[in-house]
Amino acid sequence: MASFSPTPGEVIPPHSGAAPPPMPDYEREVSRPNSRERGWNILATPGTYILLAINVAVFGWMTLHGVSAKDPTTAQLVHYGATNAYLILGGEWWRLLTATFVHVGLLHIATNMWCLWNLGLLGEPLLGPVGLIVVYLITGVAGNLLSLCFNVIGHDGTSVGAGASGAVFGIAGILIVLLSNKKLPIPAFELNRLRRSVIQFAVLNLVIGLGTIFTNIVRIDNFAHAGGFLSGLALGVPLVPRMTSGRTRYLQRQKITFAGAAFLLFLFAYFITKLR
After folding, report:
1. In CATH terms, is domain 34-273 a member of 3.10.180.10?
2. In which band, very low, low, confident or very high, does the pLDDT at 217 lie, cut at 50, 70 and 90?
3. Pick the catalytic residue: 3, 147, 159, 165?
4. What's the mean pLDDT in 98-125?
């Protein structure tokens, strides 16, 4: 999630012998969930590619309509759906969602889409295409809401935020929790390696984000990153017990979890309006 103020500066995120059970709901064969060979098959991971396509389409639409692919202005970002506390509290709550598909230049979208692609290939076999998309949307909005909250507290009505990195952190967060399920039909060493790699990704990028506090080269919305990451962790907790209990139960748990999360976000948004 990139955060901008009127001052210039672009923000970039940056085996046992027994036959194993089938993958929870969406994987028919036992294989690494982030297999690159399968990953290139769009039909195998449609949710990931739908999200990638939407982000790229929005960026392409912006550039075709005169927005600089290198250094868009804050006015242009706002026009295409970036967040701004003043506008959101004025009734434009849809910006909490649209901002997750708006990017600040070619380098910004390239880094975010690379991270989304890798995490999506790992997460979609565990969540399903619809589940992955919903997690992207919920955690992206959660990150933007936390950022909005601190903008309101700090009386910042000018900063503009955009980018998918809050949602990317959300996917990383839920994967850290889901990959802790030792009942998954993945060898323990591989499961630990995958989980460790996601943790390293999250920690490294959070540290990079915090480091930008002390420089004016770039500005990163750390609250959006933290909000997305924490909400991803929270979403994963109620899903773990149902991951290997059958498709019907798992999907039902997903629906309940996502509906509950959406309701909590609504309450959080209402709370923010009372801070003014």
Report:
1. no
2. low
3. 165
4. 95
Stated pTM of the model? 0.86
* Set 108, 159, 225, 231: catalytic member: 225
Residue 142's φ and ψ, nearest 5 degrees, are: -60, -45
Among this protein's residues, is 225 annotated catalytic?
A: yes
* 147 flagged as catalytic: no
**Tokens coding 80:** 């295409």
Domain limits, the chain: 34-273
* Average pLDDT of every residue of the chain: 86
Q: Rounded mean pLDDT of 197-207?
A: 91
Residue in the block written with tokens 């990451």: 229
